[in-house]
Amino acid sequence: MSDLSPADGQLQTARLSLRRPTEADIDAIFAIHRDPETCLHNPSDALTRLDEARELYRRWNDQWQQCGYGYWVVRRHDSALQLGFCGIKPMELRGMKVLNLFYRFAPSAWGQGFASEAAATVTTWASRHVPDLPLIARVRPANIASQRVAVRAGLTRAEQLDETGYDGLDWIYAARHAKLSSP
User: Fold this and answer.
1) What's the CA gap between 170 and 45, in Å, rounded?
2) Strands 96-105 and 135-139
3) Which residues contact 1 (CB under 8 A, 6 or more apart)?
4) Residue whose C-alpha is closest to residue 85's, from 55, 64, 114
5) In the chain, where do the E strands start and end?
6) d(CA 97, CA 143)
7) Helices marked H in 35-173 — which ranges?
8) What is the rounded distance in angstroms from the CA atom of residue 113 to the CA atom of residue 7?
9) From CA 29, how far away is CA 39, in angstroms rounded?
């Protein structure tokens, strides 16, 4: 894994390249977010129109401009095909400012360790470059694969922080070094 300077927006792993999204990724954003399998556990994230993907890209790009980090497009080194997306965004959890770890991959990329590899890289990057914000992942209880990715990325269950999200109960996983407490 290499380091990332916020100015270049790129991360590398043994197999993967993570880069800041561009307008050229809008079709992939749409394809991955309109697939019923990818949003099975989070149906509120599903997209049905291309203009929704454009708006999602705009929000991602705005965050990059404001924070210097965000969601990365993930692909293999030897391919231009977007496998999915992984990254972080600032949010609040029970009144605490945190970073939320996000990962969503096309079903064709499932079961190959890509999400875990990308999430671990983003987790390491966040601990180095945004150490003041605790890192969490919100995972639906029935989403076993997502739970495994969170654990492989170095997060552990923080049951005391579980809360209801847009699509029901979210289990909270937190980075081991995170200083979180429930009010």
Assistant:
1) 14
2) parallel
3) 11, 12, 13, 14, 120, 121, 124
4) 114
5) 10-12, 16-19, 71-76, 84-93, 96-105, 135-139, 155-157, 163-165, 168-175
6) 25
7) 50-67, 114-129, 144-152
8) 28
9) 12
Tokens 């800041």 identify what position?
20
Q: Which two tokens stand for residue 169?
A: 């109960």
Angstrom distance (rounded) from CA 183 to CA 43: 29
Average pLDDT, the chain: 92
Q: Tell me the C-alpha distance between 125 and 11, whole Å.
A: 9
What's the predicted TM-score (pTM) here? 0.91
In percent, the amount of the chain with pLDDT more than 70 equals 91
What share of the chain in percent tops pLDDT 90? Answer: 89
